[in-house]
Design goal:
The chain has about 220 residues and is mainly α. It is built from 9 helices and 5 strands, in the order H-E-H-H-E-H-H-E-H-H-H-H-E-E. The strands form 2 sheets. A 3-stranded parallel sheet has the order 1-2-3, with helices on both faces. A two-stranded antiparallel sheet has the order 4-5. The longest helix has 23 residues, at about 155-175.
Length: about 220
């Protein structure tokens, strides 16, 4: 979320690299995909290449690394070094494990920022953005949800909102469909109930509910 906001504020294009996208089972194809990413970024500049959980891709090199992984890292760093100072392509990474990142990568990341977990005002703003346009129950208690999301990151809150919204959707499907078929064929209207505060703490219908009186300890 923060990386996308940075791209929007700087009016830059945004390329989000996912390991599942660039890791190919065919030998050499992953290197071609990485080369294509850098080529595309140069054509789209100003452009931000974002690598989430950069430690999983560019971690400290070890003797046990697979040959393909080592070649991919080398290719990535070579292409990165090929970016000119006059160009407008920025490589941005995010990690929860900075000590696991390869030292050669860290040298290429001269600026490092610690991003703290959002405080109550920031959590409220995130929730307001995530719930904007959602049909809320008249008794929905935003203050309570803000309080109970203490210790969560922006991504955690986004996921909590998604799971909470799925609670009413699952209820609707259970009540209106049997074996994939609508119970009442004459009623084609989709009427999902509004989002309730309790949906954030529904331990049966939600995949990852928020625990009541939580919250995650911050070390």
């Amino acid at each position: 979320m923060l990386a996308k906001a940075l791209a929007a504020e700087s009016s830059a294009n945004f390329i989000n690299i996912k390991m599942s996208t660039i890791m190919d089972k065919w030998f050499g194809e992953s290197n071609k995909l990485v080369a294509a990413i850098f080529s595309l970024a140069q054509k789209l500049q100003p452009c931000i290449i974002f690598i989430d959980e950069i430690d999983s891709f560019l971690r400290e090199r070890q003797s046990t690394d697979h040959e393909i992984t080592s070649m991919l890292k080398a290719e990535f760093m070579t292409l990165w070094d090929g970016l000119t100072s006059e160009g407008r392509v920025l490589v941005l990474g995010a990690t929860n494990r900075p000590n696991d990142i390869d030292s050669a990568i860290l040298r290429r990341l001269p600026k490092r920022f610690a991003v703290p977990l959002p405080q109550a005002p920031e959590r409220r703003k995130i929730l307001e953005i995530m719930l904007n346009g959602a049909k809320l129950d008249p008794g929905f208690d935003l203050d309570f949800v803000v309080e109970q999301t203490a210790g969560m990151s922006g991504s955690d809150i986004k996921e909590a909102c998604r799971n909470a919204a799925m609670v009413s959707m699952r209820e609707y499907i259970r009540n209106n469909f049997v074996n994939g078929k609508r119970v009442d064929d004459d009623n084609t209207e989709i009427n999902v109930r509004p989002l309730r505060t309790s949906d954030f703490f529904n331990h049966q219908a939600s995949e990852k509910p928020l625990p009541m009186n939580h919250i995650r300890e911050i070390s």
